[in-house]
Amino acid sequence: MAQRPLTWSRRLIAVLERGLPPALLEDHEMRRRALLIEGTAWLVILACALTVPVILATTTGIGRITSLAADLGTMLLTFVGPGLLRLRGTPAAAGHWITGCVFAGTLYAVSTTGAFASPYWILLAIVPFLAAQMAGRSAGHLWGAICLVGVVALFAVDRFTGVLPQFHDPDLTGSTTAIYGAMTILAVHGLSHLADLAKDEAIARAEAAAVQLEHADLEVERARILAQQAVAASTAKSAFMATMSHELRTPLNAVIGYAEMLVEDADAQGLPDMRDDLVKIVGASQHLLGLIDDVLDLSRVEATKLDLQREQFAAEDVAREVAEALQPLARTRGTALEVRPPAVPLITQLDRGRVRQVLVNLVGNALKFTARGRVTVYVRGEADGDAQFVVFAVEDTGIGIREGDHKRIFEPFTQVDSSPRRRYEGTGLGLSLCKHLVEMMGGTIGVRSQVGQGSVFTVRLPVAAPGRSAPAAPDAAC
């Protein structure tokens, strides 16, 4: 949006706004009143300053002294108005204060310069207008009533007591009336112009805010469309990954089957070199099958199509099964792998296959990053009020993880070392899949680790699976 030129009126408004509380400038009406209070205060101070030579020319003796004192006092008291505006953060108190200063000064001037023959009467007419503009409509009504009461009281004193002094030279009434009439006209015109400027600024800001709001609505609509496209793309990706993973498993299972048959033939025919190569083919194929299974499971989890089964089993039995299955890997790494079961069997009702899958990933990761060390699987029970939990803690003495990477390692396809020359291979799916599976079973997973001192991955699961889990058939295989 093009910036408007800085006119004299905008410069004036900028000067009056200087030092005002931000809360006053945010609301258009409060800002308009604050600007009028600032402008009125300076006009009153200027008028008091210009009144000094008139007082000197039209009064003498005690009248001159008292009039100058009253003029100076009005000027000083008016300074309090802008201070109240900044201190209280609302135009009401400051508007009433400045209106009171103008009323008191005018009433004093009228009562000491001929009462109803005084040239200052015209100033009293603008008091309700000032109050309404600075402090609100109700303030205008209030000060209008106060002015009427003041007129009645002054009339009564002048009519029935005759004690009002006459400090003004009656021969100069015409001149002073012209002077103060002109000053009043200029003051009312200046304040009206300032009110219009504030109103125009408020309209311009409202229009700018409306344009910004329109742009924001367009951005929100664009973001909504992009979000819908992202959801559709994620759904399509998950469907594609699930389909492709399934299609890849079928030929890969055949490769593994035929390779295992060839291993048996090589054993029977006494071909050790060929057997070693075939065993490598079987191992690589099984590793690839595991990766495909992880991709398939992750896509199902993201598409919320992974069903959990529920069966009764001892938690420590699953931990022992995982340890036995991974003992060969532990031996090749020169690492001791052991299970620390609870004192009494811990019976749970969870998806045994998914619990086993989580432990395989965690223990496998621990072994991968621990060479000639120790990996320990702890199984224990915990209680939180009436809720019972089973806790699996996989502790290793491996390389550890930096504190800043503790959350990042649970993101899909994320590894701590993602450089092309990284020492440890992997897709970064295992821990992400573990987190999804654990949360689907109503549990939590966390990690404590220090670089060079090892890691502890802790899985906390409810003893009974969430109600949405379907019970497994009695003869279901694990």
Attribute tags:
single chain; 478 residues; alpha/beta; Heat Shock Protein 90; three-stranded mixed sheet; 14 helices; 11% strand; rod-shaped
Report on this structure.
- Keywords: ATP-binding, Kinase, Membrane, Nucleotide-binding, Phosphoprotein, Transferase, Transmembrane, Transmembrane helix.
- Residues 243-465 form the Histidine kinase domain.
- By secondary structure, this protein is an alpha/beta fold.
- It has three domains: 8-218, no CATH class; 236-301; 307-471, Heat Shock Protein 90 (2-Layer Sandwich).
- 64% of the residues lie in helices and 11% in strands.
- It has helices spanning 8-17, 22-26, 28-58, 61-78, 80-88, 91-111, 121-124, 127-135, 137-160, 173-269, 272-302, 315-333, 352-368, 430-440; strands at 309-314, 336-340, 347-350, 374-384, 387-396, 444-450, 454-462, 470-471.
- The strands form two sheets. Strands 2-4-5-7-6 form a five-stranded mixed β-sheet.
- Helix 3 (28-58) packs parallel to helix 6 (91-111) and helix 6 packs parallel to helix 9 (137-160).
- The model is unreliable at 418-426 and 469-478 (pLDDT under 50).
